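User: My instructor asked us to take a sequence, write out its structure as tokens, and then describe one feature of it. I'm not sure where to start. Here is the sequence I was given:
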Amino acid sequence: MPLVNPLSPEHDLETKKLAEFFNETLGFCPNSVLTMQHRPAISKAFINMNKAVMENKGRATSSLKRMIAWVSSNATGCRYCQAHAIRAAERYGAEQEKLDNIWEYKTHPAFNDAERAALDFSLAASVVPNAVTDEIKIELYKHWNEGEIVEMLGVISLFGYLNRWNDSMGTVLEEGAIESGNQYLEKTGWEIGKHK
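Assistant: Let's start with the prediction itself. The structure tokens for your sequence are:
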């Protein structure tokens, strides 16, 4: 049982309209957003922040941003967000080899040095205490400009919020996200956990 139950998608029509964004990214409105509707100002602000963070202005692609979200969620242990992030990466065209080997991004040949730098940044920025070092900064600047780094940290920060929200809330995982989690993550220990 979640800490707080999600409300009907019809509860707040402004949230419902904004949440159409998730039909593209996930194929459904997340239960986390339906729970946030208990305070519609939070659900609306969250969706608008999500849209702003995920907008691509540089070379950080939609699929890379979702892989950044996965690494961040993996670092914090949020199984709900891990499943959502890998599902969204798949829906945004991440290569099958990357999806199948996301756990081995540091060494697997499917990932290039620019992606490794971004994913290393995600991992370092997601742990407590923060582990972003000068070496990570130097590697980032070899491949990415400041605007792109801001986009990446926006994703990491957004998922920091989501990881805490969903792990504390025990948000029930949706069927589509369960399927993606089982397909890509189960082989290395992912499970639904408290999100059933």
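For the description part of your assignment, you could build on this observation: The mean pLDDT is 97. Try explaining in your own words what that tells you about the chain.
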